[in-house]
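HUMAN:
Just now I want nothing more than another pair of eyes on a protein record. I would be glad if you read both lines and explained how they fit together. I have put the entry right below:
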Amino acid sequence: MNDANPSLQDARRQVERKIGFYLHLAAYLIVNSGLLLLNFLHNPGHPWALGPILGWGIGLLFHGVAVFLKDPGAQWKQRMIERELEKHKPTPPP
């Protein structure tokens, strides 16, 4: 495999980001299921588990948006990077 291939590097990075999101989702589901069960068994009249569920859920939502939605500024950022690379490219002698 050629690690110098930018497309391959981008694909690997995106796969790692997706795996990270799925692990985050799994932890969210497992921990919050336990919190709901604990809340239901010990204090069903006071839904305290909703606080952590909503707070963590907002973080999970932003994580998912960052991973799965195309970053609208990505093309702009790439153009800026290319311009900077052009500035630092050595000029050939005349």
User: Anything to note?
Assistant: The chain has a mean pLDDT of 88. The helical segments are 6-42, 50-68, 74-88. Residues 6-42 form the longest helix (37 residues).
